[in-house]
Please model this.
Amino acid sequence: MRLVDARRALLTAVFDHAPMFPPASMELPDALAEDARAQASPDAWLLGRFVVPAGVDVEGRDLAVVEAGTERQGDHMYVEGVSKIRCGGASVPTVEEVAAFVRRCREDGVLFKATAGLHHAYRTDAGEHGFLNLLAACVFGDEEDALRAPRGSFELDGDSFRWNGRAAGLGELVDVRARLLHSIGSCSFFEPVGELHELAIL
Model:
C-alpha cells in the first residue's frame, strides 16, 4: 500500500478507540492493554484517539475526554446532537435521522464525530448502521440511499472510493475527513478493522 492513497485518505485515524465504554466496558488496565495491542498492529494507522471518561488521564496517548454529552479532543469540543451523533446503543436513530444530521453538518460547515453502534462496515439486518455507509453518505451525499446501501455496494482501493457509478479520489476524501466527518468512536478496534480485511479493502 502506498503511503498516501485513497484508503489512507478516507480511513487514517478514523476509529477512536473506546474500550472503557459499553458494550466492552473494560477497566482501565485492560483497556490500555487492548489499546496497546491495537497500536502494535499493522493496521495502527486507522487508530485515532483513546476515549476516556472525564477524570482519567493516560500518559503518552492522544485522548478524547467524554463528559455529560460532550467530548473534548484537544482544543475541539464535540457536542451530542450538534457535532456528535450516537448511531447505536440504547436507542438507534433511523436512517432519516442520521441522514438529516449529516446534511445539516454539511450545510452548516460543522465537523462532526459519530459514535456507538458502528462496528460493522455495512448496515445489518438488525438495523445497525454501517460505518462504510456513513462514510459514503458523507462523501457522496444521497444520504438515505448511501445509509441503506447493502453489503458489497462500495469499492475502496488505492485510487478511489466508488459507489453507484461515482468515484471520489484522494483530494475529495481528504477534504471530507477534514471538514465533515472527523472520526468514528468504537469500543472495539479489531472488529471494524477485521471487516475491512474480510472485504479485501485492507
About this structure: The chain is about 35% helix and 20% strand. The chain has a mean pLDDT of 96. The chain has one domain: 6-198. The radius of gyration is 16 Å.
